[in-house]
Design brief:
Rossmann fold; twelve-stranded mixed β-sheet; two-stranded antiparallel ribbon; binds 2-acetamido-2-deoxy-beta-D-glucopyranose; Peptidase_S10; carboxypeptidase
Length: 500
């Protein structure tokens, strides 16, 4: 029997079990998307070539900037159903941007202007991962957007630590097939991959800037988590490529920031098992066996029986946890409540259920200017219609190096209770870049408490942990996450202990 296939089929069972525990009957989670891709990559059905090498700008020959006249005004959202009654200090917009006219492919965006100084604050694009997960369902409604959904699935409350205190924030559902984003050419759902996602995202951005021309020369930053560890650098790389080609700053890209991000497969996987071991989730024997017998190098196509057995044991030991936040409660009900549950400072583990209900309400879709073509499937936090994934390089480190060489600010953060792409993985990935340390490891402070730890490297790369946060950092530690993004955007180092 092919040894790698037993690892794969075991993960399949695992995914089923995880979904069973964490979500309800409907919908996939951000976890599901990533696990599916890891499985495909193990089975070698995904192209792995490195991004700059296999990236062929010819796919972008057809960049079209269409007229966006009058569309911004039409996209203005008057009010979201269930929004708190107070008058808002900011404007919100939502709508579609066509990225490919002949295929009929359009991406959905939700945009919240800054709560103050919107004319001078930067533009920040947020991307979630998966692949296949929605930046609206996670980023906007559970992490860093101005509203969160109550347990009744129809009313909203304010997130006091929304990132639009620091920037004008754009959420994009990408690629087509995610959330409300769609294609009239259904075969597009089978031909997604990193490369096509980067080019559609780039075409989206150019057209969106045409619709909102006041942001054209604004400082621009890209942020994201999880599999967006691929999307964010790949879009940034595309922007740099076209800026260079035109010898002009078509998009005024200043920096990128990625959290609990897929960066480098080999160190990502090794770091995951080391995290399990150092957080008392698996035995020392299992950990030793994994380190001794598993080959995490990108070229490995099979694993030994000893490796598979140990990996299986690790799966069994961890499957009932929310591996995305090893200390968090899990959701065990898919029911809405008639009356909203009281808000606690800890995010409700069943928030996926509430957001799913909210996004599928016809009045919400109408207010958001979403689903105007009456799609034949529900809105899901993670797409159920995207099939397969064509290309996914094993590393994005060459892209991060490219940004450093081009003076683009790079921050990498990590919620330190995530077990899926944990802090160990991210530390190993950064070590693999072999950068010189500029400011050594030290705690960073917020409100006289340790917000996390940070180390700065030469070339303007900052690594920062967020203490007590899981995979979705702004969901679990909203105040620390806002402080982090404010420091990133202003280019200020995180405050040292000497400032206590
Ligand atoms: C539009 O998308 C289709 C795939 O659906 C692709 O074949 C075509 O090349 C794309 N056109 C442009 C201009 O990018
Ligand atoms: C997709 O098809 C619908 C129905 O024909 C049409 O209204 C819509 O504009 C098309 N979408 C795009 C992006 O062309
Ligand atoms: C690029 O633009 C700058 C001025 O903006 C000019 O000095 C330089 O010669 C240009 N380079 C090329 C290769 O066209
Ligand atoms: C993996 O294979 C590629 C091409 O076959 C080779 O260039 C590379 O050095 C190999 N990497 C490792 C870690 O063996
Ligand atoms: C779009 O609207 C149709 C008809 O109301 C509905 O059945 C479908 O679930 C909606 N899909 C999305 C993605 O919002």
């Amino acid at each position: 029997m092919d040894k790698s296939s037993s690892l794969i089929s075991f993960s399949t069972i695992l995914i089923f079990i995880i979904s069973f525990f964490i979500v309800s009957s409907h919908g996939k989670t951000q976890s599901g998307g990533l696990d599916r891709l890891s499985r495909l990559k193990l089975s070698q059905t995904v192209g792995k070539g490195s991004f700059p090498d296999h990236f062929n700008p010819a796919v972008l020959r057809g960049i079209r900037i269409l007229s966006q006249k009058g569309m911004k005004e039409k996209d203005k959202i008057e009010r979201l159903p269930g929004q708190p009654p107070q008058k808002l200090e900011f404007s919100q917009y939502g709508g579609y941007v066509t990225v490919n006219q002949s295929a009929g492919r359009a991406l959905y965006y939700y945009f919240v202007e800054a709560q103050h100084s919107k004319e001078s604050l930067p533009l920040l694009l947020w991307l979630n991962g998966g692949p296949g997960c929605s930046s609206l369902g996670y980023g906007a409604m559970q992490e860093l957007g101005p509203f969160r959904v109550h347990s009744d699935g129809k009313t909203l409350y304010h997130n006091h630590f929304a990132w639009n205190h620091a920037a004008n924030v754009l959420f994009l559902e990408s690629p087509a097939g995610v959330g409300y984003s769609y294609s009239n050419t259904s075969s597009d759902y089978k031909s997604n991959g990193d490369k096509s996602t980067a080019s559609d995202n780039y075409v989206f951005l150019l057209n969106w800037l045409e619709r909102f021309p006041e942001y054209k020369n604004r400082e621009f930053y890209i942020a994201g988590e999880s599999y967006a560890g691929h999307y964010v650098p790949q879009l940034a790389h595309t922007i740099l490529h076209y800026n260079k080609k035109a010898n002009a700053s078509i998009v005024n890209l200043k920096g990128i920031i990625i959290g609990n991000a897929v960066i480098n497969d080999e160190t990502d996987v090794r770091g995951m098992y080391d995290y399990f071991a150092t957080h008392a989730l698996i035995s020392d024997e299992t950990a030793e066996q994994i380190n001794k017998y598993c080959d995490f190098s990108p070229n490995a196509t099979t694993q030994t029986t000893e490796c598979n057995d140990a990996a299986q044991q690790a799966d069994l030991d961890t499957f009932a946890l929310d591996i995305y936040n090893i200390y968090a409660p899990v959701c065990n009900s898919d029911k809405l409540t008639v009356k909203p549950k009281r808000i606690s400072s800890v995010i409700d583990p069943c928030s996926d259920v509430y957001v799913h209900a909210y996004m599928n309400r016809p009045d919400v879709q109408e207010a958001l200017h979403a689903n105007v073509t009456k799609l034949d499937h529900d809105w899901e936090a993670c797409s159920e219609i995207i099939r397969g994934w064509n290309d996914s390089p094993t590393t994005v480190i060459p892209l991060l190096k490219e940004f450093i060489a081009n003076g683009i600010r790079v921050w990498i953060f990590s919620g330190d209770t995530d077990g899926r792409i944990p802090v160990t993985s991210t530390k190993y990935s950064i070590e693999a870049m072999k950068l010189k340390v500029k400011t050594f490891w030290h705690p960073w402070l917020l409100k006289e408490e340790i917000g996390g730890y940070t180390q700065v490297y030469e070339g303007d790369l900052t690594f920062a942990t967020v203490r007590g946060a899981g995979h979705q950092v702004p969901s679990y530690e909203p105040r620390r996450a806002l402080s982090l993004i404010m420091h990133f955007l202003s280019g200020r180092p995180l405050p040292d202990i000497s400032n206590l």
